[in-house]
Amino acid sequence: MIDAFLAIQGWGGAQQTPLTADASARCYIRLQKPRAQAVLMVAPPATAGPQTRFVDMANWLRASGFSAPEILAHDAGAGLMLLEDFGDDALLNHLGQPSATTRYEAAVDLLFSLQHQAPPAFLPAYSAEILAEEAGRLLLWYYPAATGQPASPDFTAAFQAELAAALAPFMGEKPVTVLRDYHGQNLHWLGLRHGTKRIGLLDFQDALSGHPAYDLAALLGDVRGTVPPALARALTARYIAKSGQNPADFHAALAAFGAQRALKILGLFVRLAQRDGKPHYLRLLPRTWAVLQTALAHPDLAPLARFIAKHIPPPEGLRL
Length: 320
Description:
The chain is about 45% helix and about 10% strand. It has helices at about 1-10, 45-50, 50-65, 100-115, 130-135, 135-145, 155-165, 215-220, 230-245, 245-275, 285-295, 300-310; strands at about 15-20, 25-35, 35-40, 70-75, 80-85, 175-180, 185-190, 200, 210.
C-alpha cells in the first residue's frame, strides 16, 4: 500500500529512512530523491484514528501565517500523508548552547502571535473535565506502579478536588489556541525564513481552545530537555511584556498548568511503557518529576504540593 501510494505521488524509488517514533501510534519515514525530500506519515486509521484534525490545523496554521508542514498528498483511507520535511534542527538540540536564546525567543514570539488570533471554531474547549481526565492518568498508571496498589475512588476524588482547586482561578480566561505539545522536540528551526515562520510546527493535531499559559508551560517545562532556569525566567518575562498579562497572575497560571501537565505526563510515560511497549520513556520520569516539583513550589499550589508530597512517591521506587 505504501509503495503504491508513493509511486502514484512520484516518490517511488525514493530512499526511505525511518524517523524516531513519537508517543502516538503514528510513524514517520523520510523520503529522499536527488533534489527533493519529504516525510511520509503513516497513521493507520484503526490504531491512529482519523487525521482530520491534523489536516484542519495544518491548513489553519498555514493560512494564519505560521510554518506548519505543507500536505503534499493524502490518502485518508490508508492513513498515509506526504508532508513537507522540516529537517532535524529541533530547538531541543540547542539547549545549553548560545544558539538556544534566539530560537526560544522566536518560539515565545510565535505563541504571542498565535494567541493574538481567535482560535479556529473547530477546536473544542480545553475544559476542566479534560484537564482532570489527563491528570487522572497519574492515578491509573503511575500511582499503582509506585505504590503497588490501585487508587481507591475516595483517593481519586481527593486528588481531583485538589487539582480542580489549583486550576479553578484560571478556567474563566478568554480562550486561545493551545497546541498542547508545544516543546522543543516539536519545534524546528527554519533559519532561512523570517519572523514567526522561522519556527516549524509539528504535532499540533491535539490542539484545543484554552488558557494562554498552557503552551508556555509546556515549552519551559520540557521533560525531554531542561530549559535553563535563567533562560526560562527571561522567556517568561518576554511573554508577559508582549502580552500585557498581570505578572503575578500569569506566574500562578504557569505553575498550575505546569503541574497539571507534569502529572499527566508521569502517568502517560508509565502507560507507554506498560501498555504500548515503549519503555524508553521511563528514563524521562526523573526530569518530569523535577518539572512537577518546580511548579508545585509556587505558593498558590501549596495544598496540591502537600497532597503530592504525602501520597505520590518519586519515580525512583517504581515497580514495573
